[in-house]
Every structure is written in structure tokens, then in C-alpha cells.
Amino acid sequence: MIFDRVKPLDAILATAEKKPLTRTLGAFQLTMLGVGAVIGTGIFVLTAEAAQKAGPGMMISFIIAGFVCAVAALCYAEMASMVPVSGSAYTYSYAVMGELLAWMVGWALILEYAVAAGAVSVGWSGYMIGILENALHINIPDALVLGPYDGGIINLPAMVIAGLVTWLLVIGTKESAMINAILVMIKIAALTLFVVLALPVMQMQNFEPFAPLGMAGISAAAASIFFAYVGFDAVSTAAEETKNPQRNMPIGLIGSLAICTIFYILVAAGVIGSVGAQPITDAAGNAFAAGSLELSQACAAMGDNAVVCSKEALAWTLRNIGWTQVGNLVGLAATIALPSVILMMMFGQTRIFFVMSRDGLLPAIFSRTHARYHTPHVITMITGVFVALFAAFFPVGKLADISNSGTLFAFLMVSIAVLVLRRTDPNRVRPFRTPLVNVIAPVSVAGCAYLFWSLSVDTKLMFVGWAVVGLIVYFGYSRRRSHVGLGHIEVHEDDSDAPPPPVPPVPSFKS
Description:
Order of helices and strands: HHHHHHHHHHHHHHHHHHH
Distance between the termini: 36 Å
InterPro entries: AA/rel_permease1 (IPR002293)
Largest sheet: none
Protein name: Amino acid permease
CATH superfamily: Amino acid/polyamine transporter I
Strand content: under 5%
Subcellular location: Membrane
Radius of gyration: 22 Å
Shape: globular
GO molecular function: amino acid transmembrane transporter activity
Helix content: 55-70%
CATH class: Mainly Alpha
Membrane topology: Multi-pass membrane protein
């Protein structure tokens, strides 16, 4: 039952083979593509979260998360080069391991995209409120800009930005590649400015103790920081457009992740060395759980005078080392750039739903397009409602961890799929082959499992609950209506009936 109903790979590839893409990308272009796609939201909004979990040891956490991402990327790249069609890990799993596991992957991707969009919305809210209060001196009640876990009632700005992005997706507003490129440069320039100003005022005593919560804290921070790296699939899925992919794909993947890891370590060092990043503890010396109401209350009692209390860690750091206006500029950069991240995450979610609906696993109304705008308006609005609710009531760290649980599960399944397909279909053309696959793929599986296990108990229980709900939906509805189960093998991947994307095929800026 688990491995039945495999969607024929030849059917999936039939149309893709009719529209080959020109191979124009070299190693440098791929590396820059990866840097632009990876650097973004995570480093802006999760630095405080990582500091509360690991203290200065979060620098090691960045290295661990980057390594796991690298080996997962090499596996992802082989599948992406073989199956260059819509649907991402869901489609790969359908072609290799059958409908049930594909369904579970698609169900998990809801956590990757929709919940992550909520996390970015909360991150955007923190920086936007920081600008209003510090640059414009407009005081807004905490009850209206913080969720219950942070001591407020509802995060209205996060809801508003999620609603605005939903509206943009419904009407099909397009961004240009130039605008996206400008947003990437804004983010990179802001982080570079932060490093240049923060590193010179480092004090080595701020790095002691380096790992106040031990390896467990470093592992927990790595599991959260994984969110800061997701986006490398922009490189992996470019295999069909890459010159000499067997040489250039590893260079692009590993090179971009190495550059981003170094960048992240420098930013982390700037925060730790300049203002300190020790976790806040109770009277017994136990650290408060990141994203908890107890931590929020402790922060309020000490006047939010610690980076782990900040909702805009990088801007807060700059203001506290004497660069008030530059801190405001960094906050403004994040405020300008992050909405495009929300848009791309929500678009990714609607496309996964769209493909699953066309396969019969979700109701047909989910793939219905608007008569005027030609966008999947029904599922876009449903997704938008849930993203807004996530953003309104949950803190960024919890949302990022939940998102990571779905992402790690999907990457683990893709790594397994690479091994399975090497054995079941060894002669199929692979534009890119994962090097040392019998080593890399198991390491990827182990790394994803390790980071998943390092997530909080609440997050793991929530993922299990979500998976149980998914199984109920599958056996209660989807299995009986599956096109593959009914014998309807259709080639959907030409996207002839798919809604036009809101942006050209450029980096997704997910993280």
C-alpha cells in the first residue's frame, strides 16, 4: 500500500522533454543565484531566537545547519535535474516512492511554505514596528503588535501584510526580475553594513561562556537556523539551464552555501561581540524557552535590554552600539525587502496545492482559476487566511521551527528517493549525478533526522499531529479520488492550465 500508485516518471517528463531550456549558467552565475536566494529573512529575524537557545555557540549552529543543507542540496539537485517540472519534492516522491508518501511530502510542504510565510510576516512586523517607534517616535500598544506568546493579544501588522500579499497574488501583480535583484542587493548591503560597523567594537569577553547550554543548545539553535538557509532549491532546480552541470552544480551549491555560512557567522559574531548574546535564565540558572511567555515576561522586567528580547535584532544591535540612524536604515531595508519573501512562499504553497488538486488528491476547486486574473484565487485566499492567523497569534521562532519540521521531512524523503531511483532505474539520464551518492544521501538523511530531532518537543508533536490529520484526509478523501488510482495518467506538468506565476523564474528568496 505504501509504495503502490507510482506516477510514471516517463509521463511526468513527457512534456518537459518537449521544451528544453538553454544551458547558459556557469559556476559563478549559480553561486550568485544561491547567495541571492539564501541570504534573507532567517538572519534578520532568527538571530535573537538562536542566541536564547545557544548563546555565542550559535556560530557553530550556523555551520551545522549549512552542512546539512549542502548535502541535502546535492541530493535535491539530482532529482531536480531529472524531473524539471512543477511540484518540487511532492512530484519527485510521486515518481519514485508512490502516492501515499508523495501525499505526506505534499502535506508537509504546507508547513514549509504557509507556516514559513507566517514566520516572515511576524519578522516583518517586528522591523516595521521598530522603524515606527525608533525613527518616527510613534508608540503603538504591545497588545496590537504582539501575539499571546509575546505578552500581547494579536499581531495586527503581521496580519495586514499577509492579507496584502494574498490580495497581490489573487490579482496576479507581477514583479520584475530587476526589482527582485534590487531587493537582494538591499538585503546584502544591509548585512554588509552591519558587519562593517559591528565587528570593530567586538569584545572577546562577550563570547564567554561560549556554549552556556551545551551541545543540546547548539543543536536546538541549528534546527531553528536551518530556516535561514532554505532557498538553495533556486540553485538545485536550475540544473536544466546549467552548462556542464556535473561540474558546475556542486560548485554553485557548495560555493553559495559556504559564502552564506561565512556571512552568517560574521553577522553572528558582530551581534555577540558587540552587545553580548547570553541566554536569559531564571533564578535557578535554567534558560527560558525561546518564544515563551515566560521569556517575554523576563524581558519586560529587565526593560527588553538584551538582544534575545528584540524583534529586530540587527537594528537593535546597531542602535545600542551608537549607530542609531544606521540601525533604522537596516530596519527599513528589512521592512522593504521581506514582503517579497512572503509573496514567494505563499506562491510556492498555492502551486503545491494546485498540482495536488490536478492529481485528484485535493478538491478540484483548489485548481480553479479566476476568470479575470487567471490565478488560483480560491486556494490563494484560503492559504492567505491561514497565514494571517499564524502570523497573528504565534511568535516567529515557533513558526520557523514548525516550518523547518516540514522542510526537513521533505528533504529527507528526496534524499531517500535519490537512492531508491539509482537502484530501480539506474540507466535513466541524469544531467546531474549526486557525487558519492552512497555516502552523501545517507549523510543527508541522517543530518535532516538530527536537526528534526533537535527541534522542540512541542514542534515534533505538532508535526506528528499534522501528519495524522494528513493521513485521515488521504484515506478519507484523496485515495478514492486520485487520478492515478482511477487509472487516469495525465501529463499535467506542461502547466498549460496553470496560473501564470507572479514573478519570473528568479531566486525565490525564501530564507
